[in-house]
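Question (not urgent): is this output format expected?
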Amino acid sequence: MPDSIFSKIIRGEVPCHRVYEDRQVLAFLDAFPLSEGHTLVIPKEPAATLDALGDESAAAIGRVLPRICRAVLKATGANAYNLLQNNGGLAHQAVEHVHFHLIPRFESARAGLGTGLGIAWKAGKLDGAAGADLARRIAALV
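Got this back:
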C-alpha cells in the first residue's frame, strides 16, 4: 500500500485536529469539510479498501463510530448526518487508506461551509431470478 496523507497523520508528520484516538483508530476533522464538524474516522492499520482491512481493525472502527457520531451531533447541533465510505478510484476514493466521512447535515450553511453531502440516488429494480442467483453466489463466498 502506498504511503498516504493519512499514514503521515497517524505518524504525527502532518498535523490534524484530533477528536478521538486509541490504539487502532484515529478520528480528526476533515481539512476540506463539506459542513461544520465533517470528521474522518480511519483505522491505523494500513489498508487501502474496506475489504482489505483486518477483522480486528474493522471491529475497532465499528465500536467507536457510534460514539464519534454522537459527539459530532452534540457539538455541532446537527440532528442528521451522512456516513460515507468509498473503495477504489471508480467509487471516488481520493486517499488510498480506509476512511469514513462523518458529514453533519444542516438546513443552511454554517461557519462559512456547506450544508453537507448532496446525493443523487438513481435506483434500478432487482430482477427476482437474477437477484436470487446473485444472492446465492455471494452467500457461498461469505
